[in-house]
């Protein structure tokens, strides 16, 4: 369709693998927009530097969620379950791991499990609406992480049934696994979910601050002051309060990451600006200010310059 509508000089679609991507990066583009992993994002940025091409990098990372004390754990669990297992977690802004206040753990777990049952039945890997892993390599990566996580500490809440034939992996939920364990080493981008309990809000805030900045920090809370505290003490591309994923649907909100989760903003008007290069135009009509800015520097000229500065700034 693109080929029918545009000439190759206007729009060109090039499909392929690593070789095609590398060939494109060798070209002197004015601007490069890349969506993918942080690892490949570094390769793209290094290639762009050879031509001094500007870049927009939409990468990802381990986006955390905080379910605060009094944050309605059941409702939070239901909304997080929908967001996490939409497309089986293969969304760059999917909740990656959860910090739940110890008073909300039971209701949160019930909200997640009951919602999963409602959405995908008792055997999600057999449900027609439950999504498979995008390719064999991604399937093997997640399978390996889950198998390693099974051997580590933590309470398994949902067993993550693996179906080799369909390349589907059921919801795998672990309560309080090791914070340096298999599920916390990299962005999951899949149906596995580590859940950690906390008693004091500073605990998850310190943990989040110790990790690379994510695309999103999700907050489930009824306290405006605690929401502001979380926003103030974390750094991320976006914050979403009492919902997950839907922030991307608002075209008035710029979308992008910070640090290892990316750079630059897209979505709506912000996307238009990202792909534009503002060009300034300056015109001189009448007598230029240079007559006051040239030697000899007299007291009269100094007074005139001060007056000009006051008027302009």
Describe the structure.
The protein folds into two domains: 2-58, no CATH class; 64-258, Aldehyde Dehydrogenase, Chain A, domain 2 (3-Layer(aba) Sandwich). It contains eleven helices and twelve strands. The protein is 36% helix and 16% strand. It starts with a helix and ends with a helix. It is globular, with a radius of gyration of 25 Å. A seven-stranded mixed beta sheet has the order 5-8-9-4-3-10-11, with helices on both faces. The longest helix has 16 residues, at 105-120. The chain has 313 residues and is an alpha/beta fold. Helix 4 (73-85) packs across helix 5 (105-120).
Please outline the helices and strands.
Elements: H1 2-5, H2 18-25, E1 31-35, H3 38-50, E2 54-58, E3 64-67, H4 73-85, E4 97-101, H5 105-120, H6 136-150, E5 155-159, E6 162-163, E7 168-169, E8 172-175, E9 192-198, H7 202-209, E10 216-220, H8 224-233, E11 238-241, E12 262-263, H9 268-274, H10 290-293, H11 299-312
Parallel strand pairs: 1-2, 3-4, 3-10, 4-9, 8-9, 10-11
Antiparallel strand pairs: 2-12, 5-8, 6-7
């Amino acid at each position: 369709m693109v080929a029918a509508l545009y000439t190759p000089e206007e729009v060109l679609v090039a499909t392929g693998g690593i070789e095609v991507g590398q060939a494109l990066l060798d070209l002197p583009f004015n601007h490069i927009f890349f969506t993918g992993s942080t690892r490949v994002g570094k390769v793209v940025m290094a290639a762009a530097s050879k031509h001094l091409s500007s870049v927009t990098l939409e990468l990802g990372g381990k986006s955390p969620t905080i379910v605060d004390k009094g944050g309605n754990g059941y409702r939070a669990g239901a909304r997080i379950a929908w967001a996490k297992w939409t497309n089986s977690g293969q969304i760059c802004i999917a909740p990656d791991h959860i910090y739940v206040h110890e008073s909300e753990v039971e209701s949160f777990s019930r909200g997640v499990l009951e919602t999963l049952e409602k959405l995908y039945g008792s055997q999600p890997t057999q449900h027609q609406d439950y999504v498979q892993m995008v390719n064999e390599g991604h399937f093997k990566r997640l399978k390996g992480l889950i198998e390693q996580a099974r051997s580590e500490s933590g309470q398994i809440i949902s067993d993550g049934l693996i179906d080799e034939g369909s390349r589907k992996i059921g919801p795998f939920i672990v309560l309080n696994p090791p914070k340096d364990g298999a599920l916390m080493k990299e962005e999951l981008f899949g149906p596995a979910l580590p859940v950690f309990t906390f008693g004091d809000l500073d605990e998850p805030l310190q943990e989040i601050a110790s990790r690379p900045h994510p695309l999103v920090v999700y907050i489930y809370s009824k306290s405006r002051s605690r929401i502001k505290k979380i926003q103030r003490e974390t750094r991320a591309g976006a914050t979403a309060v009492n919902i997950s994923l839907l922030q991307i649907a608002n075209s008035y909100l710029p979308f992008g990451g910070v640090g290892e989760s990316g750079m630059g903003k897209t979505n709506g008007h912000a996307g238009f600006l990202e792909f534009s290069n503002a060009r300034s135009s300056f015109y001189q009509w009448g007598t230029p200010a240079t007559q006051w800015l040239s030697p000899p520097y007299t007291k009269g000229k100094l007074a005139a310059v001060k007056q000009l500065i006051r008027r302009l700034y």
